[in-house]
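Feature request, filed as a ticket because there's no other form

It would be nice if the structure record came with a short human-readable summary line next to the tokens. Right now we just get the raw output. Example of a typical job, pasted below so the devs can see what we mean:
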Amino acid sequence: MKENKLVDLSMDFAIKIIKLCENVKGHGSLVNQLERSATSIGANIHEANYAHGKPDFIAKLQIALKECYETEYWLELFAKSEILSRECSADLYNQCGTIRRILIASINTAKDKK
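Raw output as currently delivered:
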């Protein structure tokens, strides 16, 4: 099932972000924002698997999607401000994009089955 893959991808992504944030010196408030949004993706996906019905499931995935978009923003900001190298941020940005595309497909599928 896609949600299991999504859980695994989001967990792996969150771990990479946490490890990255441990190594960024300074910029505490920005690091906090990135870490919060990136880890929230997986938390909401996990929560969606225990939703109280289809509307709740869709709502949780939509929150995860919003957090995905926010995380992409922070990664882009980190790259443009040279807090992260382009190579590092591009890899994480691509992983976040993969999660985003799966979330969009999952939300659309869930809405079609209403």
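Something like this underneath would help us a lot:
The radius of gyration is 14 Å.
The chain has a mean pLDDT of 92.
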